[in-house]
Design goal:
Structural class: mainly alpha
CATH class: Mainly Alpha
CATH architecture: Up-down Bundle
Number of helices: 13
Mean pLDDT: 87
Helix content: over 70%
CATH topology: Na+/H+ antiporter like fold
Order of helices and strands: HHHHHHHHHHHHH
Number of domains: 1
Number of strands: 0
């Protein structure tokens, strides 16, 4: 059992550490350019390639997408209660409690834990989280919503293309399938390296709110995931995938929007760092719990 868990968490730690070393080095890695490449090219390609090449039904994709919406909605309600009790700013910290890092850490984790099936299910969950981050999350931080923020997301168009392939039953040309597979393949290692780079460059300016948000993110993710798993009667890899992705730490993109729109963005940076480190420390236990939830606990 311990060997299997180590085989899953080991590569995540190693690739994140590589990013951390690069972030602390004098190479001056251009994180903004790499993150744009991941968002605009690699992510849409991985979504298209995975959902059109693996045997996953539209019903399953819809179920996972609904799981993501429900998890975020429950997290929003619980997050509002936590922030009210703690006397902390909704606009500053609510996105950090609502939006988990289901991309940088979540997708590599479900891929290593549950294989290609886990990746397909994870992507069906992740694309909803990503859309919510760049629309609802940005709207909370900025105090205004713009429809063009949604229209400008390449994820939307990759999902539409997947829908066209599913409805029409057309076979994706080999050249397109091979190209999107290769481009999408860089997403997961690039995300982990970017995570490590971000951890190397972000700092904790105020420990108290950082610890509060980090602990609250985990405590909110647990009931949210279990409620959704029970409500939608999820089992097996579906249940394990939802559990892991809902338990992820606060996403780095929350800091990006806080830095753009908020004066207290350094507190969000601290929350990202502490939340990520706390999740990393608990990763073996979270993985064991996900196996237990899925009914695939290693012997």
């Amino acid at each position: 059992m311990y060997g299997q868990i180590l085989n899953v968490v080991g590569p995540i730690f190693v690739m994140t550490f590589v990013g951390y070393v690069l972030g602390r080095s004098k190479l001056q890695l251009d994180s903004a350019t790499i993150s744009s490449l991941v968002l605009l090219v690699a992510t849409p390609c991985l979504i298209f390639s995975t959902l059109t090449s693996l045997d996953i039904s539209g019903e399953t994709v819809a179920k996972m997408a609904l799981s993501a919406v429900l998890c975020v909605s429950i997290a929003a309600l619980l997050g509002l209660a936590v922030l009210k009790l703690a006397g902390m700013s909704y606009r500053t910290f609510l996105p950090s409690l609502m939006m988990p890092n289901s991309g940088n850490i979540g997708l590599p984790l479900v891929l290593l834990a549950f294989g290609e099936t886990g990746l397909a299910l994870g992507i069906s969950y992740f694309f909803v989280i990503a859309l919510l981050q760049y629309t609802v999350g940005a709207a909370i931080s900025s105090g205004q919503y713009r429809f063009r923020d949604l229209a400008n997301q390449p994820l939307i168009y990759s999902i539409l293309l997947v829908g066209v392939v599913a409805v029409t039953g057309i076979e994706v040309p080999v050249i397109i399938a091979s190209t999107t597979e290769l481009l999408g393949g860089m997403m997961i290692p690039a995300m982990l390296i970017l995570l490590g780079t971000s951890l190397a460059r972000l700092s904790v300016s105020d420990l108290k709110p950082a610890i509060t948000i980090a602990i609250a993110r985990l405590c909110i993710g647990l009931p949210a995931s279990l409620i959704v798993i029970a409500a939608l009667s999820l089992s097996g890899v579906e249940a394990g995938t939802v559990f892991l992705l809902a338990m992820m730490p606060t996403a780095i993109v929350n800091y990006v929007f806080a830095e753009r729109y908020r004066e207290d963005s350094r507190q969000v940076a601290g929350a990202v760092v502490v939340s990520t480190l706390l999740t990393f420390a608990l990763l073996p236990a979270l993985l064991w719990s996900a196996y237990a939830v899925s009914g695939q606990l290693p012997q």
